[in-house]
Specification:
By secondary structure, the protein is of the alpha/beta class. Helices cover 48% and strands 16% of the residues. The chain has 13 helices and ten strands. The longest helix has 17 residues, at 44-60. The model has no long low-confidence stretch (mean pLDDT 96). Bound molecules: D-glutamic acid (DGL). Residues 7-9, 11, 37-40, 70-72, 126, 129, 160, 198-200 line the site of D-glutamic acid (DGL).
Length: 282
C-alpha cells in the first residue's frame, strides 16, 4: 500500500519532495488534477466533489493514507471527507485495511506561533482558502491573552495560474508578486511571519523573498513542505495501523488528469529529477 499525495496541479510536488526526503523508504502515488486547476476560485461544492473523486481514485489505486497537499482542498473538503465519506468507505473495508486522509493546514498552524516575534502573521492563500477562514480560525484557537496573534489574509488568485503556466521565474510574475504582498503589508505593516498557505507558492519563493528583503524587516516566510513531512513522520509513528500497511520500496508514481508529457516536463524541473507521468481520467 502507498501514500497518496493529491493536489489540484503541480503545487503538491513541493510537499511530496520534502516527504520523500524525510521518509524515503515508502512508496508514493502523486495525483495532480491539472486539467481542472486552479481549484481556489471554485465554490465549496465543486472543490469538495473534485477532491472526493481524487481521494477515492487514490484509494482504488492502493493508497492507505492520502495527504491533501493542497490548502484549498484541506480548507474546503477535508473535514467533510473525514466526517461523512471516510466512515462509509471504511465500513466496506476489512479490519486492518482502513484508510485515512490528512491535510496541510493543521501541521502549518501548529508551528507558526513559535516563529513570530511581533505576533503579526500574514497568510497568503487562494480565494477559497481565504474565504474558508481556516487559518484564522485555527490560529485563533491557539491565540491566548499571553500570546495575542493578529492575523491578516490576502487572496492571491493569479499565483496558481502563473505557476501552472510555468511562468513563475519570469519577469511578468513580478507584477503580481508585488501586488499581493503590497496589499497585505498595507493592511498590517507589522507582519513578521508570512505563511505561504498554498502549496504552489513555494515556486514563487525567490521572488517573494526578494520582495520581502526590499520592503519589510526581519520577515520569516513559512513554506509547508518540511512541516507537513515532519507531521506525517510523527503521524506514522503514532499510527502503526496505517504504517504497517505501507510498502517500503522507495518508489513514486505520478498521475495527472492533463497531458502526461507536459506534466512530466514541468514536474521534472520542480523535482530536479526525471519524472514520467501517466494520464488518468477522474
Ligand atoms: N496548491 C493548492 C493549494 O495549496 C492550489 C489550489 C488551486 O488550484 O487553486 O491551495
Amino acid at each position: 500500500m502507498k501514500i497518496g499525495v493529491f493536489d489540484s496541479g503541480y503545487g503538491g510536488l513541493t510537499i511530496l519532495r520534502e516527504m520523500r526526503r524525510r521518509l524515503p523508504e515508502y512508496d508514493y502515488l502523486y495525483l495532480g488534477d491539472n486539467a481542472r486547476a486552479p481549484y481556489g476560485t471554485h465554490s465549496f461544492d465543486v472543490i469538495y466533489s473534485y477532491t472526493l473523486q481524487a481521494v477515492e481514485f487514490l484509494f482504488s489505486r492502493g493508497c492507505t493514507l492520502v495527504v491533501l497537499a493542497c490548502n484549498t482542498a484541506s480548507a474546503k473538503a477535508l473535514r467533510t471527507i473525514q466526517q461523512k465519506d471516510l466512515p462509509r468507505i471504511n465500513a466496506l473495508r476489512p479490519e486492518g485495511q482502513k484508510v485515512n486522509v490528512l491535510g496541510v493546514i493543521r501541521p502549518t498552524v501548529e508551528v507558526v506561533p513559535e516563529m513570530t516575534q511581533t505576533g503579526h502573521i500574514g497568510v497568503l492563500a487562494t480565494p477559497a482558502t481565504v474565504s474558508s477562514e481556516s487559518y484564522v480560525l485555527e490560529l485563533e484557537k491557539i491565540s491566548s491573552p499571553a500570546r495575542v496573534l493578529t492575523i491578516s489574509q490576502q487572496a492571491c488568485p493569479l499565483w496558481v495560474p502563473i505557476v501552472e503556466a510555468g511562468e513563475y521565474e519570469n519577469a511578468g510574475a513580478d507584477y503580481f508578486v508585488d501586488k499581493y504582498l503590497h496589499a497585505i503589508y498595507a493592511e498590517d505593516p507589522q507582519i513578521d511571519t508570512l505563511v505561504l498557505g498554498c502549496t504552489h507558492y513555494p515556486l514563487l519563493l525567490p521572488k517573494i523573498e526578494k520582495w520581502a528583503s526590499e520592503h519589510a524587516k526581519n520577515v520569516r516566510i513559512v513554506a509547508q513542505g518540511t512541516l507537513v513531512a515532519d507531521s506525517l513522520a510523527d503521524y506514522l509513528l503514532r499510527h502503526g495501523e496505517y504504517r504497517s500497511q505501507l510498502s517500503q520500496n522507495g518508489t513514486c508514481v505520478y498521475l495527472t488528469t492533463e497531458n502526461a508529457d507536459r506534466f512530466s516536463q514541468s514536474a521534472s524541473l520542480f523535482i530536479g529529477s526525471p519524472v514520467r507521468a501517466e494520464h488518468i481520467c477522474l
